[in-house]
Every structure is written in C-alpha cells, then in structure tokens.
Amino acid sequence: MTTTGETHRTAGGPWWWGRWRSAALDGGLAVASAVECGVEGVRFARDAGVPVAVGVVFGVLAGFALVLRRRWPIAVVLVGVAVTPAQMGVLLGVVGLYTLAASEMPRRIIGALAGMSFLGTLIVAVVQAQRDMGHGGLVRVGGWFVPFVAITTSLGVTAPPLLLGLYVGARRRLMESLRERNDSLERELQLLAERAEERAEWARGEERTRIAREMHDVVAHRVSLMVVHAAALQAVARKDPEKAVKNAALVGDMGRQALTELREMLGVMRAGGGGGRVRESDVVAPLAAVGVAAAAAASRAVDDEDGPCLGDLDELVGQSRAAGMVVELLVEGDVTSSYVAAVEQTAYRVVQEALTNVHKHAAGAKTYVRLAHRASEIAMQVENEPPAADADSAAGVRLPSGGNGLVGMKERVTGLGGVFVCGPTDAGGYRVSAVLPAG
C-alpha cells in the first residue's frame, strides 16, 4: 500500500510503483510539469534578474518533483506552494493537491496544506491583478475587481482538485472496505462449509453407530435364544424326540421373528427409495446434505416405526423361560399415561439385552426382572443370581460376546436423559438398572 492509499494485487512496477502503468503516468505528468515550469522559468529569470538558464533549470527541477507524488505527496504540495510566487507550477500544484487529498493522510494535514496553497495563489493573484491595473489596462474597473479575480482564481486552482481528490480517496477506501468485507465473508462461508462438513461427518458416524446398535439389539437376542435352543435340541435329540421337536419349532419361531424385525427395520431405512438392495450409501449419504437434523429424524423414524413396547415384555420373558431360564417378572405401579414410543422401546431393549447377557454369561442362573411405573419416570432392573457350577456343561455351548451390549444400553438410556447403572452384585450375580423420564 502506498501513501495515496492504492493497493495492488501484484507488485510489478519499479521502485514504489505497483504497476508500470502508474509509473508511466507519473513520468508523463512530471515531464509535462517540467516543460511548463521550464517555460515559465524564462519569465521568472527576467523578472528576478538572473540568467535565463538558471530560471529554466529551477523550473525543470521543480516540475520533475511531480514524479514523487505517490511516494511523498506532502513534499510535492510544498514544492508547488514554494514556486507559486514565481508564477509557475500550476500543473504541479493541481496534481499534487489532488494526490494529497486522495491519500490516507489525516484531514488536518490535508486542510492545512490546501489552505497554504489557496493563500499562496490568492496573494499571487492579488499582486498580479494590481500590477495589471497599475499598467493602465484596468483603470476604470471598480475596487471590487481585484478581490473578485483573486478569490475566483484561487478557488478555481485549489477547490476542484481538492474536492475531486477527497471524492476519489473516499471511493477508494469504500471499495477497499467492500473488498475486505467480501474476503471476510468468503472466509466465513468457507469456515461454515467446513463446520457443516464436520457436522455431516459426525451425523454419519452417529447414524452408523445407531444402526449398528439397532441391528445388535434385534439380532443378538433372537440368535442367542436360537443357539440356546439348538444346544438343548442337540442334547435331547436322541433321549426325548418329542422335546427335540418342540425345541426345533422354537428355533424356527425365533429365526422367523428375527427376520421379521430385520425386514421391518430395513423397510423403514428403505422408505422413500425404489426398493431393491439396501446399501450403506442409501442410508448415510443423504445425511451429508441435511446434517444433524436429518440424522435425528431418521433415528426417530426407525425407532418409532413398529418398534417393541412394554406390552411385549411378557412375551420376551416367556421366550427366555422357554429356553430354560428361570425368570420372574415383577411390575410395580400403574401406567397412568402412555409413554412416548422412544421410552417404551428403550425400556424393552434394556430388558432384552440384559436377558441376552444372562443367556451368554450366566446360563441357568435365576433372573429377576423388575419394572416400576412412577409419576414422571419409569425404572427397570434385571438382576441374575450366580450361575450353577454345571451351567456351562448343561447348556453345551458358550455364546460369543462382542462387548457392545452394555455400551448400547447406556447410549440408549443417556440419549433420552436417563440414568444407567450396571455391575456385579455382592452375591456374585450381575445387575442392570435404568431410569428413564416418562416424557
């Protein structure tokens, strides 16, 4: 940035010029000013009684000062004021005053130098007008003529370049401010775009986690029961064919129920599409455009569509009993109002996953399922006693565990603003407790 307030994207000019075009313009103005001052230096030399060559050199040097107008505008204006008494440097004074007014100099400096230029021009105009009247050419003109000519000449030389320079400087500063504001807006938009991409990435991760948790809840319980029944079927196939047939039917029922729940969930995930094979991009890609709100909406859609409820707990407990587990279901309090679907589904999934963990890690242990309906919340607890010493051999199989069940339960409960606690009991069993707000 130069003293005139001009900014350039590329610094390709010599010295203090940002562009070669600016250097050429200032050079041309300096040559024209030097020629003008050199010609006027001849008359100045004759009036001052000095050699003509001295007057011409003085004028040329003074005129060439205009080449410094972008670098030192104050010096150019001072040179113009200094040569005003010699009646030379009109172009120098006009261009220098314009450059100063258009620069970023303080207004008080611009006003002071403009006043000096006006005063110098006024004095020279008064002297010249009186000299002309003294020669007899303007004898009959009234006394008002000299002040009128002097003030008009001074204003004509000083006011236009000053006002034009102030206007150009203000417009240049406005354009620079708009440019900076545009750059700032571009940076803000880029930052917002980056944050939106981060939120979309977070939403995609959350949706993947939620889908994985839902798949785990749907599949793990059913498949665990199927494995238990299959192990029992293998144990009694030869000894008790009738019981083997019953266990085989239960395995088939469990498989069909698991497939039904998977189809329902995938159907919701496929809603709005044209059917066909479900791909991860079909579920996750739209979230990049709509962000967190769409992810939450998709989550609610999956959770609210034909999901399990508290009324299905009896059937859930019955399935575990059919697999050989001793389960007691205790319900306290009355349901005074219907819970929202997300609360009922979360309560159901907590009990379901807790029973699945008993099948996996404490086969044959007696289990207690307690459900308490309160004024503004619902509490559930699943607690099992220590498994029998021969439980594993009786079951015939040790079910694999991915370690995601407790994590998924905690995420579900805390996501609704509830409290989740789990851990071993003093008697050697395990307890899972959760409290959910009714709303």
Structure description:
The protein is α+β, with helices and mostly antiparallel strands. Among the domains are: about 20-140, no CATH class; about 310-439, Histidine kinase-like ATPase, C-terminal domain (Heat Shock Protein 90, 2-Layer Sandwich). The protein is about 65% helix and about 10% strand. Helix 10 links the parallel strand 1 and strand 2 (about 365-375). Helix 4 (about 90-100) packs parallel to helix 6 and helix 6 (about 145-235) runs antiparallel to helix 7 (about 240-270).
Order of helices and strands: HHHHHHHHHEHEEHHEE
CATH superfamily of one domain: Histidine kinase-like ATPase, C-terminal domain
Structural class: alpha+beta
| CATH fold type of one domain | Heat Shock Protein 90
Quickly name the level 1 CATH class of one domain. Alpha Beta
* Proper CATH architecture of one domain: 2-Layer Sandwich
Short description:
This protein has twelve helices and five strands.
Compile the SSE list and pairings.
Elements: H1 20-48, H2 52-64, H3 73-83, H4 90-102, H5 107-134, H6 145-236, H7 241-269, H8 280-304, H9 313-322, E1 327-332, H10 341-361, E2 367-373, E3 377-384, H11 391-395, H12 405-415, E4 419-424, E5 430-437
Parallel strand pairs: 1-2
Antiparallel strand pairs: 2-3, 3-5, 4-5
